[in-house]
Amino acid sequence: MSRAFRFQFSSSRHVPTLKVLSASISDFRYDRHAHTEYAFGVTLAGRQDFFSAGAYHRNPPGSVIFFNPEQPHDGESGGDHRLDYVMTYVSPDTLAPLFAAAAGDEQAGRLSSPQTLITDPVLRDAILALTRLVRGDIGSRIDQEHLLGQIATRMTQRAGRYQSVSAATTRPDRLLMRACDYIRAHLDQELSLERISDAANLSRYHFLRLFRAQFGMTPHQYVISCRIDAARTALESGVTPGEVALRYGFADHSHFNRRFKRIHGVTPFQYQQSLAH
């Protein structure tokens, strides 16, 4: 009997923040989570079902999936067939100058797309070409940067809008941003609803209601997602899984393994080993 899932991570040796996931799943479901990076994916076979941006999506083969940084989502294989897909993850800092160049405005700010599913053969082919280069460790830095530029340009043309750095935000937005900043600054400490809501200057009831409406996940889910994201960064820098589990408050190594695997499909050790090759 074949395995119900397979995940393989690869990192670019030319573009430090660029990573690729190649996955094949039939009996696996991701916990709801978010990434700090932009994520571009293409379904190769089967159907990918997921909830994000307040809606349930079904992604057929050849269609592009796009997640903004901090956009919550889950995911699983839809229907009776195995799901094969690839995802690329790139930091906002890496893509910012490419998006700005595509927009013709150095002050364009961060690109944000309201479209989660995009049908665009040009964008799809650029993503697939980039994943082949990274997974095969072939081509030069300029080859990968060229494809990233193509992706940034196409996203700007097809689905992009820019959030001005100086754009006004509502008071609830500012208060929730305070809460998120507090969470990210205290991931290695004990966190509670009381402390987080106090940081936002909101009652616990009001905070919970606003947070869920804004982010599509509970504060607890957000804390776990942020801790796993910070843990992933630490693993990439060579910190041992045991040290990472202790640093970010997981009850034990087994607990860390389970939480990490529900978001990334592999254990912390497997993730670290896959990027070492």
UniProtKB/TrEMBL annotation:
Domain HTH araC/xylS-type: 177-274
SUPFAM superfamilies assigned: Homeodomain-like, Regulatory protein AraC
Any matching Pfam family: HTH_18
Keyword terms of this UniProt record: Activator, DNA-binding, Transcription, Transcription regulation
Gene Ontology MF terms in the entry: DNA-binding transcription factor activity; sequence-specific DNA binding
Coiled coil: none
PROSITE patterns assigned: HTH_ARAC_FAMILY_2
UniProt xrefs under PANTHER family: HTH-TYPE TRANSCRIPTIONAL ACTIVATOR RHAS-RELATED, TRANSCRIPTIONAL REGULATORY PROTEIN
Protein name as annotated: AraC family transcriptional regulator
Provenance organism: Kushneria konosiri
